Automatic annotation (TrEMBL):
GO terms for molecular function: symporter activity. It is a multi-pass membrane protein. Keywords: Cell membrane, Membrane, Symport, Transmembrane, Transmembrane helix, Transport. This is Proline/glycine betaine transporter.
Length: 331
């Protein structure tokens, strides 16, 4: 006869009650900060056509576009490193501190793109400096989305975790919408030639004040209840466990959970290839190949991302009554 395993009863120490006011403040600050961070990251795609002419003037138009979009791809190679680095720091020192650091790095690196002289002024150093700034952006974004996702998940009640998490996507898309709107507005006000000469720098300069606002919002946040509980546990017992951080075996993940790992990688790749093709390549394709005006292409993307933001939040709200289920098999 099989023995039934005894289940440890839940005590008051196992239950964390989160004040609704703190929850709303945390979600709002995280989402707004996310919007400002992704405004910085996404605005590059809307001005790629201009950047190709400024930083790669000797090439033909097609090569200019390839070079500009190729530079945009570099941060994606750096993002995993940023996620690993800031993820480990977040486990040691807290999510709030890391989120403040990532938004500072993103704001400064984006602002610096607007300061880079053209190729005609400093030659080959212009695209090199652009590449370095994009690498800093990628490092920041890697820590940003990983950290803010954990931050929101640890703050959210179980039944509302999916809906609360959707506000991060809403914030990201809102940042892209804001970026498209700013580019369209500036281009329509200053004209195409002035936009190529100096107008493209303005969206990057806006990153600094937006970053200051985002830093203020995140600085006022409290650590998640889960992390505070972890700190209290370490203070009561083995304090070294917090300082040394969690022991993570990447070898174990790669050998024992490789199917799930590859599935997750495939899902993320398929989603991002489609999304960033629409985000970065399509505005340039409309302007360069189909000869649409910058205003027309940007306005189309502004409407697309606006609908995307509304649908994302609406879908998550509609799924609240249902039990979440995995989107891929658990091997």
């Amino acid at each position: 006869m099989l023995k039934r395993k005894k289940i440890k009863p839940i005590t008051l120490k196992d239950v964390t009650i989160i004040d609704d006011g703190k929850l709303k403040k945390a979600i709002t600050a995280a989402s707004l900060g996310n919007a400002m961070e992704w405004f910085d990251f996404g605005v590059y795609g809307f001005v790629a056509y201009a950047l190709g002419k400024v930083f790669f003037p000797d090439a033909n138009p097609s090569v200019q576009m390839i070079a500009a979009l190729g530079t945009f791809s570099v941060p994606f190679l750096i993002r995993p490193l940023g996620g690993l680095f800031f993820g480990m720091l977040g486990d040691k020192y807290g999510r709030q501190k890391i989120l403040a650091i990532t938004i500072v790095i993103m704001s400064i690196s984006t602002f610096c793109i607007g300061l880079i002289p053209s190729y005609a002024t400093i030659g080959i150093w212009a695209p090199i400096l652009l590449l370095l700034c994009k690498m800093a952006q990628g490092f920041s974004v890697g820590g940003e989305y990983t950290g803010v996702s954990i931050f929101v998940a640890e703050y959210s009640p179980d039944r509302k975790r999916g809906f609360m998490g959707s506000w991060l996507d809403f914030g990201s898309i809102a940042g892209f919408v804001m970026g498209a709107g700013v580019v369209v507005l500036i281009s329509s006000v200053v004209g195409e030639q002035n936009f190529l000469d100096w107008g493209w720098r303005i969206p990057f300069f806006l990153a600094l004040p937006l970053g200051i606002i985002g830093l203020y919002l995140r600085h006022a946040l409290e650590e998640t209840p889960a992390f505070q509980q972890h700190v209290d546990t370490m203070e009561q017992g083995d304090r070294e466990g917090l300082q040394d951080g969690p022991k993570v075996s990447f070898k174990e993940i790669a050998t024992k959970h490789w199917r799930s790992l590859l599935t997750c990688i495939g899902l993320v790749i398929s989603t991002n290839v489609t999304y960033y093709m629409l985000l970065t390549y399509m505005p340039s394709y409309l302007s360069h190949n189909l000869h649409y005006s910058e205003d027309h292409g940007g306005a189309d993307h502004h409407r697309y991302h606006g609908r995307d933001a509304v649908c994302t939040a609406g879908y998550r709200y509609a799924q609240r009554p249902f039990r979440p289920s995995p989107v891929y098999p658990d091997w």
